[in-house]
Each structure stands twice: as structure tokens, then as C-alpha cells.
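Exercise 3.2. Students should predict the tertiary structure of the chain below and write it as C-alpha cells, then compare their answer with the key that follows.

Predict this chain's 3D structure.
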Amino acid sequence: MAYKIKFGTDGWRGRIAEDYTFANVRRAAQGFASYLAEKGHRGKWVVVGHDKRFHSENFAAAVAEVLAANGFRVYLTNGATPTPVISYSVVDKGAVGAVNITASHNPPTDNGFKVRDEHGGAIDPEGLRRIEALIPPSADEVKRVKLEDALNEGTVVYFDPAPAYIEHIKTLVDLEPIKEAGLKVLVDPMWGNGAGWFPRLLEGGKTVVEEIHNIRNPIFPEMKRPEPIPPNINVGLQETVRRGADVLIVNDGDADRLGVGDEHGNFVNQLRVYALLAYYLLEVRGQRGPIVKTISTTTLLNKMGKIYGVPVYETGVGFKYVAPKMLEVDALIGGEESGGYAFRGNVPERDGILAGLYILDMMVKLNRKPDELVQLIFEKFGPSYYDRIDVPFTGDREPIEERVRNAKPETIGGLKVVGFRTIDGYQFMLEDGGWLLIRFSGTEPLLRVYCETTHPDRVQAILDDGLRIAGLK
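Answer key:
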């Protein structure tokens, strides 16, 4: 029986040469082509891009061959390209969607197949289910044309997506004050697609931008995976101190996520970064509009919503929920716990490059370094302490889900439980406004246990209780 391709939170990911093979990538591409054809898009353009993982450019070429054979025209990126740049290219080129060959932050053994809609955003769950249903059971049912022939016929065209994206970015943030601020910025693109972008955007002024891990190396040395959280960014944090940098900007492997290190070499967690970005737009730039957040990110946003008089919408985890909601409500900002943030005026897609520029602009406009910005947020909205435990998991989920679903703890981490939600996984609301969330990852075989609290000394106790509730401790 053919391998069953299953689309998760953000497309399909698999282990290279085991289930992520050329045959299966072509099957997935055929499913996407059939989905677009059902929507009446045959003959229109689709953007195809890739990251710097093993064989990614060749997998992307295979996708282009299938799309061309199905009557679509393809803009194929001329090199490894950040996911947000690919997403913007969909809008810039008037394409009907995109395929991005990337496994984002997964381990080096993996690769992936991301799909995007005509807005450059994640396709909603119903659309993903339809694509999955249209994937043929056999590679024999895949239409395919040779790339060389498609290039000669003009049905596949190589293009450089960078110039249009850069001009677009300049309409969203004034780069000149950042260039002239005299900052020392250390950037860690995690051996991935973000390499070279910040130096290119900020060259020519007093600000100095230095990079580490900025060449192609698909085994990702000095980190477990290209995910912008500790311990993967520990080398970058150490280098921040050693080089005397004012800030560490980290992008994951496909540059759609942002990690931040402060001037002391401490990690600024993703929930705090989201709060900083929302405050920047609401207070520093005086903008207004709805906030979209997944249930696994910070309640500081809910407090901001009340103070600034803007609605806050909560969704399940993943941009397949965030992006459609952003479009529906014309959101000012949308984001998730993984470090992905999207902004009005841009495509409804995570953009680690734009998010990094916004953090730098905030530093310049408020004349504060990252740790000082965090303290400012705490002074205005109260403290936030967060952590997450990932537990590898294979097998039957139901016993764990049943155990958690039926748990009725009166307290967690010494805090009274005041509510219970099942928007995505199982979330216990705590008396201090914090929460504990237990859910299975939609992209990897992991059980995730997350928490946020106002008490720094209770974080570990809350996580430990979460593991006990799941029967894993």
C-alpha cells in the first residue's frame, strides 16, 4: 500500500528518503494541482520555492514539473528563499498559490511541503483536507513534464523574488533611522534562508550587522534543529555577549520565525516578543486593529486589547487558523507561540525578517535595548513567565487524551484552576490569568506541555503537574 501523505498544521513533513521521497513529493504536488484545478485556476501562475535542506532545490524542481504538466505556469525561485518572500511573491506576481519545499524548524533528517493560497497565507483546514484527499495513491497517476522542456516552453520561469520584497518592506518600515542608529546587531539565520537579508537591508549606515551560521549546512551544526529557541540559539547568545552586540536576531531555517536575544545574552521568549511587537504597533506607531493570537501565546495581549480598545481573537495553534482569521477581521497583527508573527499591510503569513526589523525600529524609537523593552512591558501590563516541554511520542494518543480530558485538578502548580478549554488540545485556566496547555504537535510526533504564569517560581511546578495529568510523570 502506498504511503499515506498526511497534512498537518502547516502542510506535510517527513523523513528524507524514508517517506519524503521524490515519488511522494510528486504525489503531493499532483494533489495540489488537482485542488487548484477544481478551483478553476488551470493556466494560471503558481510560485514554487525552497530552503537549504538536503535536495530541496531538486524537490522544488520536481514540484514545478508536476504543476506544469497539469496546465499551470510556474515561477520557480532562483535560489533558497525565505518563506515570507515566497508568500509575498504570490501577491506580487498575481499567482493563485505557492508550494514551498521546507521543513522549517524540524530536525535535519526532515523536509517538508508547504502550500499557500492566493493571499500568500496558509490554506485553511478544510482546504488542506481537500488537497490531501486529491493526492493519488500511486506515483503512476502523477502527470509530469521534464523541467528542461517546461523551461523551453516558458511554462516554468526562474525568477528573483528579492527586489520586489525589499521594495515592499520599505513601505512598512523606514530603514534609514535603523541604519543610522549605530547599533551592533548580531544575526543568526541558523544555516538557513535568512542569511544575508539583514546585512543587505541595513547596509550603508552606522549600524553594524554581523552574522553567524550563514552558509548552507543541512546538518545544522551547533544546534539540534533550526528552531529559534534555546538550546539551539545558545551559541548565538554567547556570541552576543562576546561581541558586545546590542541585540541578537534569530531566524529559523526558512526565516518565517523570529527569536530574540537581549544585550546581556538572555533569550527573550516568544510570548514576550509578541507582546513587544503588539505594543510597538499600538503605542509606538499609534495603529489600531484586531489582534489574532493562538491559545498558546500570551495573555498580555488580552490586557493590551482592553487598554487600547481593540478586539482580541483566539484561535487554535497554527497559521492555518491564524491567517484566515486575520483576513476575516483585518487584523493589525497575528501570531503564535512558535515565534511566528504576521502584520497588516503584509501578507497573512509569518515574517521573521519584518518582525526583526520592527524590533530594531522599536529599539531605535524608544532608545531602549531588548531587556529594557521587556521591563517596560512588565511595568505597563504585568509580568509573564513561560516555558514548554516537548515529549517525543509514538503510538495511540487516545489514552493520554482521555486521561487529560477527564482530569479535574483543583490546583495546578499551586494555583487554583478556574476554567477549562478545548479549542486546540486541553487548556486549564489558572487564577492568576495564566494557563496550562497540553496538546499534540501538528507537525511532529511530540506531546507539548506549555504554560504561562505571573509567578516565576511556579513555572516548573505547573509543567510538572501537566506531565502528571498526562500520565507522563
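Discussion points: The chain is about 35% helix and 20% strand. The first helix runs from residue 22 to 38.
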